[in-house]
Amino acid sequence: MDRTTIAAVLHGPSDVKIESWPVEELKHGEVQVKVHFVGVCGTDIHYWKSGALFDQPLSHPMVLGHETSAIITKLGPGVDNFKIGDRVHLHPAPACHVCECCIEGNEHNCQVIKLGKAFHGSIRRVCNHPAEYTIRMPENLTMEEGALIEPWTVGVYAVERSRITVGQKCVIIGAGAVGVMVFLAARLAGAVDICVVDISKPKLELISKVGDCKTILASRDCKETARSIEECLGGKTGCSI
Questions:
Q1: What's the Rg (C-alpha) of the chain?
Q2: pLDDT-derived band of residue 56, with 50, 70 and 90 as boundaries?
Q3: Percent of all residues in the chain with a pLDDT value above 70, rounded to a whole number
Q4: Beta-carbon count within 10 A of 89 CB
Q5: Rounded distance, CA 167 to CA 158, Å?
Q6: What H or E segment, with its residue span, contains residue 158?
Q7: Cβ proximity of 170 and 191 under 8 Å
Q8: Fewer C-beta neighbours within 10 Å, C or N terminus of the chain?
Q9: Average pLDDT in the 134-151 region?
Q10: Which tens digits make up the pLDDT trace of 217-238?
């Protein structure tokens, strides 16, 4: 295999280049994959527009992308739970297991391995990934659907934290990709009366096609929007996400 691949590399605000990127030797516990689909997240767009993400300014060129489906093409030393040809999803947040956040059980907030610091994204043809954070996809998922696993888990986690109960009313703020996932997860959790709020009419129209829900085009007047939500659900909501 060539020692380079093609990647979408961010160099600064509004500066993404499609260019050659090195393919490193596989380390112990890693797999090498051929990337098939990568979703474009709001995080990628924020990075692209500003060259920073919240408190993480871009300090060096970075490969974008973290919603990924792929096929394993090579196994590194010590990897015996996968085989070449396995269809997989790449968990986008590997952890070091030794920093304070990891020790406290908050591996998703690992301070050592962060996208753009010690870890690059997956908008590239070939990449290496820790086998520990590689998930075999079920056969009934397409490769396109596999790239949606990451935003789906965000939606499920949000609903779990909300503690929605069967028959409960729910309002979801935001009808983007994650909002759609929250809506679907809320339905599965038993919510029966769901109102979705957004400032984008096209997004509200799209989520209405996904499933039965009420929608509100948000006003610049927050109090007016709040009144619209109460009217929509026939009283105060039991849960908001």
A1: 20
A2: confident
A3: 96
A4: 23
A5: 18
A6: helix 149-162
A7: yes
A8: N
A9: 96
A10: 998 898 999 889 888 888 777 7
Strands 169-173 and 239-240: parallel
On whether the CB atoms of residues 50 and 56 are closer than 8 A, the answer is: no
Relative orientation angle of helices 201-210 and 177-189, to the nearest 10 degrees: 30
The gap from C-alpha 180 to its chain's centroid, in whole angstroms, comes to: 13
- Residue with tokens 């009934």, as numbered in its chain: 140
The pair of structure tokens assigned to 161 is 């934290």
8 A C-beta contact, residue 191 and residue 164: yes
Element (H, E) at 76: none
- DSSP secondary structure letters along the chain: --SEEEEEEEEETTEEEEEEEE-PPPPTTEEEEEEEEEE--HHHHHHHHHSEETTEE--S-EE---EEEEEEEEE-TT--S--TT-EEEE-S----S-SHHHHTT-GGG-SSS-BTTTB----BSEEEEEGGGEEEPPTTS-HHHHTTHHHHHHHHHHHHHHT--TT-EEEEE--SHHHHHHHHHHHHHT--EEEEEES-HHHHHHHHHHSS-EEEE--S-HHHHHHHHHHHHTS--SEE-
For residues 189 and 184, give the distance between their C-alpha atoms in angstroms, rounded to a whole number: 9
The sign of the CA dihedral 68, 116, 110, 173 is negative
Structure tokens at 25: 């030797």
Structure tokens at 38: 């990568």
Backbone angles phi, psi at 44, to 5 degrees: -60, -45
CA distance 232 to 228: 6
- Which helix (H) or strand (E) segment holds residue 88: the answer is strand 87-90
